[in-house]
Amino acid sequence: MEKNHKNTSIFTRFDLTTEEEEQGARKVSSDPLLQKVGSCVIEGDDDQIEQAVTEALQNKSPLVVTNEGLIAGMTEVSRLWAEGSYFLPQVILSSDAMVVGIKLCEQKLGHPMDKKAKVITHTAEGDIHDIGQVIVNALLSANGFEVINLGFDVPVDQVVSACITHQPIMLTGTALMTTTMSAFPRIAEKLIQENIHIPFVCGGGAVTEEYVTSFDLGIWGKEASQAPGMAEDVLKGLSWLELRQKWNG
Amino acid sequence: MTTFAIAFDIGTSGIRAQVIEQQSQEIIATVITARHPIPGANVIDHLHFALEMGINSTQRILVQCINQIIKSFPIDHKQIMRMSVCGNPIQLSLFQGIEIRDLAFAGKQKQQALGISTVNREALITNAGQIKYLNLSDQCEVIIPPAVQHEIGADALAMIIQSNMLESKETTLITDYGTNAEMALLHNGCIYSGSTAAGPALEGQQINSGMLAAPGAITDILEEPPYYRLCVLDAEMNTVNGPLIEFNTNTVIDPHSEYPIRGITGTGTIAAMFQAMSKGLIHKAQINTPDNKLHLGSNITFNNHDFHEAGKAIGAIRAGHISLCNAAGISLSDISVAYMSGASGTYMDAHKAQQLGLIPTQIKKVYQIGNTSLAMAKDLLTDSSQLQQMTELATQLQENHCMFARSDVFKKVFMLELAYWTEGMPWSLYQKFLKKYQLPAIAEELSQAEIVQTVTRDINTLGSHGLTTLTNIGQKLDAHMNGCIACQSCTVECPEQAIKLSSTNGVAMITLNQSLCNGVACKRCEQVCSDQYFKLSQFFK
Amino acid sequence: MKLIDSMAYSSPEEMMFGFAKKPVTTKSGLVIGGGSVIPEITTHPRPGKEHDLATLSRELERANFDALQRCVSVGHPSIVIENEHVFQMTNNPEWGAEISSISCQMIADFKSKYGLNAAYRSTIADIRKPDLVNLRDSERTEKVIESFKLCAKTADIVSIESLGGKEVFDHCIIRNDITGLLFSQAVLGGRDMQWLWQQIVEIATENQCVPGGDTDCAQANTAMFMAGGFDGKDIPHTLAALTRAIGASRSLVAYECGALGPGKDCAYENPIIKAITGVPISTEGKTSACAHSDLCGNVIAAVCDLWSNEAVQYQNMFGGSSAAVFTEILGYDTAAMNSSIMLGFEKQYQACLINSDRYRDPQAFILCPDNAWSIGKAIVDNANSLYERGRAAAITCGELILADEQLMLTAIEKKSLLGYMQELNTLPDNEADFIDLCLHKYQKVKGFLPAAYGL
């Protein structure tokens, strides 16, 4: 007399449905060409991505390939990461593949694609340990931000002048050693002098919340993975102080 | 007339010294300090302190402590004819009072901006008169060993020489499991070296209940099914059985002794990690107990943050090993012999370390060799060829030194380690990524390694006068803070109780016990001062 | 003691809500299991109200009054009121007795004033925590017995949620140790109940009070809570299902000692008990969401005689006090069930209850009447020892779960279950060997005192 109620209005076996999803990525497009592009991003396949994007560009516009293939694929990667079935190295591979794809689309388009906003990232003056920054860069790119990557061992003045030139919505700084993090308050001070009141997210190694919140503009970044969420908040209009109140303390 | 020579190892957590009788080369006495005199918890803190307070006052603090040790030797100090020091480049530079900013700022741009040219850290024989504040007769000879770049110093050279690894015919790895883990790989006559900022987790710091080895510290955790036995240090620093506990609750099954448990050391941390991992208590990088903590008796817990910190330290070391192997064109499995040095490397359970990935899985023989710096310093006193050997080795190391911070292989593997330890990335995926990066897979089966402990404790021979531990080192410094209203916020805030407040003729005077102070990376005293009258620098003017 | 070796029901189809093979009549005149389902409301004091007798008594008096009054208001014809003792009510036996006496007097007043049929169940708190005291010989043990003696004088029904084996169970559940769970529930729990329930039955009988029943709340429900919902993964749901089956072999001991039912509401193993013994049972499901969540909110009502809410703290809600509100909910539920009986649709109604949850979760699946009956059959067919029947219950339970193709399991649930089955199948065949094995294996478990179980 009993029927299989797995998918009826009576109940949903969320333990099973979530389990099935964990086993693989969802389809990102019904179009086979765009699906291939999306799959390359999801798989982080840097060998195939160029070919997939090139093929798709033959009969799709760069905008469609970007939004419905590359970004759709990356959105799926973010979802898989959030649910715990993807891990950081996979996200970075996917982000790299996506960036390769977007470059191709931009070539075809003839000009750079519109990004959400600019974020400047750097590793502190005197510090050569930039692994945290590498992660921040990949995650910001993956979330549609234009990353101005100043690299490592960047002098204070160079950071400030880049902020003047690029007018980013947010600045990030990474430091492994307590000795180099003293550059951060100096950067913040000079930005304020230049009347640039953007959030300055500082993190890495020995950088502590107490230290970063002791100077204006400073927001402590506990983990690299917080960077996109913070940037989204700035886009929504949060000031550096509101951002600090939300993410710190 | 009997003459003497003195050897010093300036370590991060304290100074160790020995005095020998020059003719007989016999050890007379050993003196160690319970702490390092310069404010701060680790060598980067010491460096940071010197940057902020000036090299001169920092050198003074360090050398005055050395003078205090010299004074405590049971000999006629005028008869000290020779002194040698060993330690990492930062400590030795502080001792000499030379440029340290290149050590603080590895980036070339910053160095250029500061106008620092290449700093000479070659071997040096000078006399005591050349070392400011040093209380020895000017003619006393002072031997300072060389350093390789800023990452690898005399302590690392000591580790390589004192272990005798260079005589090995087999592929051999040596690692000092410290905050800055120095490591070297010998393969086909070439030495590949590197140094990774593992962080202090394996020394019991940055761990919630972490502490350095001291009475009341958990140093190991043994399985006594269905429970676990804590091993703790007693008042004499002997490892004794502590309470029988279970990880899930703070219930103590059998207190065993009333000895109070105060915290967990680096080796205890390794044991906790090992037990949690091997009992399947880690799920997706989270501790899978009802409250996500391992309970180590009634008042000590090991939480997810601790697991991640210790995991990152282990990961940095394994990433370093893999990077060295990559430089040598071999895989971890090709290494036959591993040396573990430093206090952590000596006291940690090698089997547990191997299980966790701190030494390669396929190793055949493990030597735990203790602290080699003091032994090196002592050899420098009696064998003049040793300094030459260190210099030659330093030159040799420059050929194949691997700067991990700039190594792609290191970065890629460390990122895998991060994902493995903090996100719970499955091991199979880790291996898949290694393959993708064209790096050899890590063998999963553990070898039955033979473990040889060449020492039973850090310093093997103490001398006829035995060991003296100086606990009261460093100075108490007084300062008046302009505007201070004696509200006591700073004395309450200080995590080390290093600050005392007194009043002389109605003027508030603050006294700092400098060796207890956590240094400029802490500065909670300054932050808590409501009107920012407190300035740590006041004490060190 | 001879263990039950036959089934009261010859097939699961015979089992129906409202009907028990052996109905029970209380001294207040209420018939339970005699053809209709009756609501059973359990009221509970707010925290802080238990410090002195006057306050506590006033709190429960109000709650119980509200329940009776709501029956009158909406026309529920009969009700059982239960108070589960808070610690103080048993630790001071006169407290529990006083509250029982007041409640019974109130029930009598409602009967004379409105003709409402009601009964009072006093559930003594098992304050003998096995890791603190010797279960058989402690001051707390004496207080438990004394409480039964005093409460049975006035209460219609007495019950208990006994704690035997809890110390070993707690140790084993977090270790996924099925051997230890079997030992703690079937052997330790069963032995403790044999010792305890003979005394309870004797006391109750002397006082014309119904010796109700017991529940494996302390163990199987702990497993159920830990298993949680579809999003909870502290322990596998299949493990919780196995502990439920083992729990049935344990709770059965009360009836072997002479308990007559109704079984305790939180004994989710009661459908199995009913299949074996034919006594009326109390169950709780969706209506106990106020106390805890479960995955069998409807199916658990399929063969109930009393329909309960576990416990609801006395609080004010928009619709009156929580006692009144839950009484109303329970009464309407039972009214619907009783209507289906009257209309001859009870089989269809029961099918709806069962099908709502049958494949929701393995824990619900094994409590469907057909599966509950099969587990009961395995228990009576292995009546050689407490251990053997507990093990048979677990193995049958696991086999039923694995055999039904429509019951879906996540990979981890299935893998875990196969592991438990393998372990169960390699255990010794006879109880003496099993006890030897376990005494050695669990000797160091904190507070475990074999002598407290006559071992």
Helical coverage of chain B, percent range: 25-40%
What is the structural class of chain B?
alpha/beta
Task: Please give the domain count of chain C.
Answer: 1
Number of strands of chain C: 12
Shape of chain C: globular
| C-alpha end-to-end distance of chain C | 16 Å
What class do helices, strands and sheet pairing of chain C give?
alpha/beta
- Which pair of protein chains has the largest interface, and what are the residue counts? A-B, 30 and 36 residues
In order across it, which strands form the biggest sheet of chain B?
5-6-4-1-2-3-23
Main sheet specs of chain B: 7 strands, mixed
Uncertain segments of chain C are: none
Head-to-tail CA distance between termini of chain B: 42 Å
CATH superfamily membership of the domain at 4-154 and 461-470 in chain B = Domain of unknown function (DUF4445)
- Largest sheet of chain C at a glance? 8 strands, parallel
- Quote the beta fraction of chain B: 15-25%
The CATH architecture category of chain C equals Alpha-Beta Barrel
The CATH topology of the domain at 4-154 and 461-470 in chain B is given as Nucleotidyltransferase, domain 5
Shape of chain B: globular
Task: Describe the secondary structure blueprint for this structure.
The complex is a heterotrimer of chains A (249), B (541) and C (455).
Chain A: H1 14-22, H2 32-43, H3 49-59, H4 62-82, H5 88-109, E1 118-123, H6 131-142, E2 146-149, H7 156-166, E3 170-174, H8 183-193, E4 200-203, H9 209-212, E5 218-221, H10 227-235, H11 240-247
Parallel strand pairs in A: 1-2, 1-3, 3-4, 4-5
Chain B: E1 4-10, E2 15-21, E3 26-33, H1 43-53, H2 55-72, E4 80-87, H3 89-96, H4 101-104, H5 108-114, E5 124-127, E6 141-144, H6 154-163, E7 172-176, E8 180-187, E9 190-197, E10 217-224, E11 227-233, E12 239-245, E13 252-254, E14 263-264, H7 266-278, E15 282-283, E16 286-287, E17 293-295, E18 301-303, H8 304-328, E19 337-341, H9 342-347, H10 350-356, E20 365-370, H11 373-382, H12 385-399, E21 401-402, H13 408-423, H14 427-436, E22 450-453, E23 467-470, E24 476-479, H15 489-493, E25 499-504, E26 507-513, H16 524-528
Parallel strand pairs in B: 1-4, 3-23, 4-6, 7-19, 9-21, 10-14, 19-20, 20-22
Antiparallel strand pairs in B: 1-2, 2-3, 5-6, 7-8, 8-9, 10-11, 11-12, 12-13, 15-16, 17-18, 24-26, 25-26
Chain C: E1 19-25, E2 31-34, E3 38-44, H1 53-74, E4 78-84, H2 87-91, H3 93-114, E5 117-124, H4 139-151, E6 157-160, H5 166-173, H6 178-206, E7 210-211, H7 217-227, H8 237-256, H9 270-277, E8 282-284, E9 306-308, E10 312-313, E11 316-317, E12 320-321, H10 322-343, H11 346-357, H12 362-365, H13 369-381, H14 386-403, H15 411-425, H16 431-441
